[in-house]
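Throughout our pipeline, every protein is held as a single compact record rather than as scattered files. Nothing more is needed to write down the fold, since each code stands for a local backbone conformation. For reference, a complete record is included directly beneath this paragraph.
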Amino acid sequence: MSADALAPYILADDSSRRALEAVRSVGPFGAYVAAGFIRNRVWNSFYKPKPAHVIADTDVVYFDRNDLSLATEQGFEQALERECAGQEWQVRNQARMHEKASDPPYPSISEALAHWPETATAVAVRLNADDRLEILAPFGLDDLLAHRLRPTPAIIRRDRTIFDVRVVQKGWLERWPNVELVN
């Protein structure tokens, strides 16, 4: 899986680059930016004109078993807001997210991503010290880059309707009418 495949979608956008630089600078140690921040930029690029949808928030994920407090996450959100104002930041420690899903503890960010609802959303990137993208994508990039919406195996095992409800509530089929919905 190559960071080069995502770089044109993520690094060509000044606001994306600023967000990644902010996370690298004041975000949690080892943090990545994930979810709609990536998916929306990639999928919007498939349409001319691009869908006029504002990206609601910037999801930041990290992993720290030693500090599971919400106050720490909120502190990072405030620091990111000061560093890169104008975005809504949502910082989540993936070491505690298993509780939300009633799963056993996840051993890593990658394993936590594997339990997210959609394969194309379970992608995280960060900017390394050399200004190159590093990627975590437990299902690879194929679904993201092929404009394919597919539930993850974990969500199918837990409750497939979670995926189905998200597709409808988020209006993805209206926003991206050419997306391939995989059942």
In short: The beta strands are 32-34, 58-62, 89-93, 124-127, 133-136, 148-149, 180-181.
